[in-house]
Amino acid sequence: MKRIRIIAVLLAGLFGASYANAQEVLTLQEAIKYALQNKAEAKKSALDVENAEYKIDEVRSGALPQVNANGSINYNPLLQKSALPAEIFGGEPGETIMVAFGQKWQTNAAVSVNQQLFNQSLFTGLKAAKTTREFYQINNTLTEENLIEKVANSYYEVFQTQLQLKTLDINLESTRKTRDVIKGLVDAGLGKKIDLDRTTVAVNNLEAQRQQVINALELQENALKFAIGMDITNDIVLPEETFDISVERMYDTADVNSRTEIALLNKQTELLELNRKSIVSTYYPSLSFTGNFGYLGMGNIFPTFGSDGFKWSNFSGLGLNLSIPIFNGGSTRSKIRQADIELRKTEVDIQDAKLGLSLANENAKTQIKNSLLTINTNRSNVALAKEVLDNTNNNYTNGLATLTELLDAENAYADAQNNLNTALLKYKVAEIQLIKSNGQLKTLVNAN
C-alpha cells in the first residue's frame, strides 16, 4: 500500500509538471508574432508576394527569344497525279499523260526562332508586372495590419474576462468567509439560520456565475488561439501588465497619406494607368524577327540517314514581320474610355478612404478621452466601494449592520471592479484603433 501511494504521488507530480510546462505565458507581442507566422491569412498573403515574382517571369519570357523544334513524317500510299502534255516526254502532240509527283515517304525536321524587336504592349506589360509585385507587397502589409488588429482585440477580450474571473474569486472568497462566520454563530446558537441560508444562496449564485465566466473564458481563449493559428489544445496564460495605460499615444500625429490603405489604392491607380497604356499601345506597330533551319527528306522507303533510296536536303530562312494596326471599328477607343472611367472611380475611392481614415482617427481620440475619464471614475468607485465594504464588514461583525447591507456592499465592490475592467477594455480597443489610424500597428510587434 505504501508503494502504491508513492507511485501515485510520483505520477501526480509528473503530470503536474507536464501541465505546467504545457502552459504558455502569452504576451500581446508574442501572440501577434505567432499569428504573422502561422495564421492562414498571413501565409496566403506571403504566397501571393512569391507568386508575383513568377508572374513577372511569365511576362518577361515574352521579350526573350521563342525557340521551337518540330518534325513530321508522312506516308503516301497513293501519290496524287498531275496532267502533263505528252510531248514533254516525247509523245504525240495534243496527248496528255498522268504523272505522279512526290515520293511514298516524306519527312522534315526544323528549328524556328522568333524574337520581338518592338512591341509596345509587351513593354507595358513588363512595367505592369513589376507594379503588381509592389501591389502584393503592400497588400501583404495590409493583411498583417488587419491580423494584428484582430489579434489585439481578441487578446484584450480574454484579459478582461480573466480580470472578471479574478474579481469573482475575490468576492466568492469573501462571501464564503462570511458564510463560515455565520455558520459558526448558528452552530453556537448565536445566529439566525435565515442569515446562513441567504449567504449560502449568495455563495451558490457566485459559484454558478464563476462557472459561466470560466466557460466564457475558455471560448474566448479558443477564439484567440484560432485567431493566431495556434493549436486549440494548447494552454495559454496572459501576463498581469497587459492593461497598462499610455496617454502619450493621444498626441501622435496621424498622416492618412502614409496609411497602407491609401498606398494600396495609389498602387492600384498605377496598375490602372498601366492598363490604359497597354490598351493605347495596340495603336503602335509591332516588329519581330523570325528564322528557321531544317531538313527535308523524301524517298520510297522508310526514311533513314545514309540510305541510297532516301534523299535529304536542308533549308533555312530569315525574315522580319511587321504588323501595323489601321482600323478596328473604334474598339480600342472604347476600351481606353472605359479605362479612364476606372481611373476616375479609383480617385473617388481614395478621397473617400482618406475621409474615412480621418474620421476613424478623430473617433479613436474621442473614445480614448472618454475611456480615460471613465477609468478614473471607476477607479475612484472601486476604492470607495472597497472602503464601504470594509466598514460594512466591520459593522456587521459588531452587530451594527445587517447581512443585507454586507451582501450589497460585496456586490457593489464586484460591480465597481467589473465596470473598471470594462472601461479598461474599451480603452485598449480604442487605443488599437488610434494606433491603426496613425498607421503604427506594426509597432505592436516590437513593443516592449
Question: How does this model look, in words?
Answer:
Helices cover 63% and strands 15% of the residues. The protein contains eight helices and eight strands; from the N terminus they run αβααββββααβαββαα. The strands form three sheets. Strands 2-5-7-8 form a four-stranded antiparallel sheet, with no helix packed on it. A two-stranded parallel ribbon has the order 1-6. α2 (28-38) packs across α4 (120-187), α4 runs antiparallel to α5 (193-228) and α4 packs antiparallel against α6 (260-280). The relative contact order is 0.12. Residues 1-21 have low confidence and may be disordered. It is found in: Cell outer membrane. Its main location: membrane. Keywords: Cell outer membrane, Coiled coil, Membrane, Signal, Transmembrane, Transmembrane beta strand, Transport. Belongs to the outer membrane factor (OMF) (TC 1.B.17) family.
Shape: elongated
Number of strands: 8
Uncertain runs are 1-21
- Assigned CATH architecture: Up-down Bundle
Largest sheet: 4 strands, antiparallel
Helix-residue proportion? 55-70%
Radius of gyration: 41 Å
Helices, by number, come to: 8
CATH topology: Outer membrane efflux proteins (OEP)
Strand order of the largest sheet: 2-5-7-8
